[in-house]
Amino acid sequence: MPILRATLLISVLLLFTGCADTEPAYAPGPRPVKTMVVEPPQSQVVRSFSGMARASRDMALSFRVSGVLQELPVQMGRRVRAGELIARLDPTDFELKVMELEAQAEQARATFTKAKADYERFQVLYDAESVSKSELDQVRAGFETAQAQLAAVGKSLELVRQQLSYTRLIAPMAGTISEVPVENFQSVQTGQPVAILSTDDDLEFEVGLPDQLIHQVHLGDPAQVIFDVLPDRTYDATVSEVGITPGPVSTFPVKLRLAEPASQVRPGMIGMARFSFSHANSQPFTAIPVEAVFGLPSGEQAVWLVSPGSDSTSGTISGTNSGTVRRQPVITGRLLPDGLQILDGLLGGEIIVIRGVHRLEEGQKVRLPQNAS
What we know:
Blueprint: H1 2-22, E1 31-32, E2 35-37, E3 44-55, E4 58-62, E5 67-71, E6 79-80, E7 85-89, H2 92-127, H3 133-165, E8 168-170, E9 175-179, E10 187-188, E11 193-199, E12 203-209, H4 211-214, E13 222-227, E14 230-242, E15 252-258, E16 270-278, E17 286-288, E18 294-295, E19 301-308, E20 322-336, E21 339-344, E22 351-353, E23 365-367
Parallel strand pairs: 1-23
Antiparallel strand pairs: 2-22, 3-12, 3-16, 4-11, 5-7, 5-10, 6-9, 7-8, 9-11, 12-15, 13-14, 13-16, 14-15, 17-21, 18-19, 19-20, 20-21, 20-23
Helix pairs in contact: 2-3
């Protein structure tokens, strides 16, 4: 019995050993990867900076006379037309002054009329040698005094009437009220701002640029502006002002003027301005995701190029959807918002692996999803 059991055990072991020797080894398929098509090299880089729309002109509206605000119909953000009432002072004091001077003017006019008649009468008497020359001169002096008093009262009355008209503050042109720094029934002084009017004729977009880039910006340079509330619309603009001293946050102010009227844009809207800056040494470059670059034992850096079938376009390998990879040494530059600069090694149009580069080997088969790009 023991011999029989040993014989059966050896037979089973030989059977399993034979099966293991004849079963083919497991060979994994192409490794799935994600790719992209490299853009052609360029000698410029696009940078974006946040900013705010502002009116090209902000006018501080104020009264020419002092007084107490009696009417303040405007509010911040309200659009006004040329000639529309902005504010009005209490006109009572000026109206009383006008009435007082009107009474003085009537009295002065009566005095002047009497003095004129006396002078004309004495002139006739003097011609008839009925009065002396000194009497005529005295009457004439009274006439001239009355004439001067009437003119003075008339000028004072004209001035007070003009001051009365100054109690109404009207908009000199159409625009938007951007600020109202006073309250109704408040006492205001001559020249004190009552409202800030932002004109609608031209809008500007103001941004701040760092000192490394400000020297590359010049008057008339093109730019593009996109507002947060209008993300689907891009506005062309040109540089209208370049600051020479930094602002509060150590950036240099740059103003852009929108090329076309923008009825939907209002002062105070936030957005981004895009500028194209030349590379420091004017050497063309392209930008790729930093994850696509890996180091070689030699210290160089490289990317994996995908060699797909002839029926592949735009980075998608159709048909079998597979290909092979090979190392491509590259020279890298600075890290930009769009990716890592590639100064040499890529010409544009190549398909490179951008995910899982450290798990690949030279000549390894790779597989892309049907929607890979």
